[in-house]
């Protein structure tokens, strides 16, 4: 493993104390790599194609379209002010799960990625806002782009009003004494977010998306119809992807406050099939709505996670 990749591993980051230090390590390693951010040059937005006429600048010709149609088309653009983005962090109970082999909880992993993403965007002069959510918006930090705003973002991430607890797959694990149950209602929350956005924005939602799919997608559609770009950034634990449990296991759902005992060997195949089916549906339907989608597992390299997110965002921006 290279020095760069090792510096961006969750195990390395877990050994560091505090979100600020972790985020700075991610940023330094990511910027030192070869990845370029699609946020560069975001002051110009693609509008539409039109046929080439004599006198048009050749640099605006889309040669890929020419290759498909044998006709010359040029891209037209709409001048924009700086990009406005809102980073929506799901802090419900399911996000605090961490398996025995995972260095970080899903919530910690998501915070690190979003903090690094905020720094990259602020570096480009973009305005960033934050929303911490569960069944409602718990904290809302309006978008800004001044020099001290990244410190304010980190402060919000590190001092959330609502504490949450760790579950096992599908939001199930024994609750620790004194910790509250916190559910999820992303559909309602994102509808609320849509109503608060003062202008066209990029909305990045970091969650495990262990929630009802229909309300979530309805809210994504609402945001898209209002002209906002949307990227769904899914963070899962390795346990949720592989279901490694054996024998009889008692699962307690913190968000629904129910307990179920299962013979895991007999349900593993069904679980994995249902999980794959749910993932395929979430991926395909979100992209059909014109939203970007990226899924990571919380033991994966942060550089790969950021690169995958930025690639997803760039692809989403190319949708006409």
Descriptive overview:
With 320 residues, the protein is an alpha/beta fold. It has 2 domains: 3-39 and 83-317, von Willebrand factor, type A domain (Rossmann fold, 3-Layer(aba) Sandwich); 44-79, no CATH class. 40% of the residues lie in helices and 22% in strands. It has 11 helices and 10 strands. It has a 6-stranded mixed β-sheet, sandwiched between helices. Helix 3 (19-32) packs across helix 5 (106-123).
Brief digest:
The protein has 320 residues and is α/β, with parallel strands linked by helices.
Give the name of the CATH architecture of the largest domain. Answer: 3-Layer(aba) Sandwich
Low-confidence segments: 1-5, 40-44, 162-180
Q: What shape does the CA trace take? A: globular
What is the gyration radius calculated from CA atoms? 21 Å
User: How many structurally independent domains?
Assistant: 2
Q: Please give the share of residues in helix.
A: 40-55%
State the CATH superfamily name of the largest domain: von Willebrand factor, type A domain
| Major sheet: arrangement of strands | 5-4-3-6-7-10
Reading the helices and strands in chain order gives: HHHEHEEHEEHHEHEHEEHEH
- N- to C-terminal distance: 40 Å
Stated plainly, the CATH topology of the largest domain is called: Rossmann fold
> What's the CATH class label of the largest domain?
Alpha Beta
For the sheet with most strands, the description reads: 6 strands, mixed
Relative strand content? 15-25%
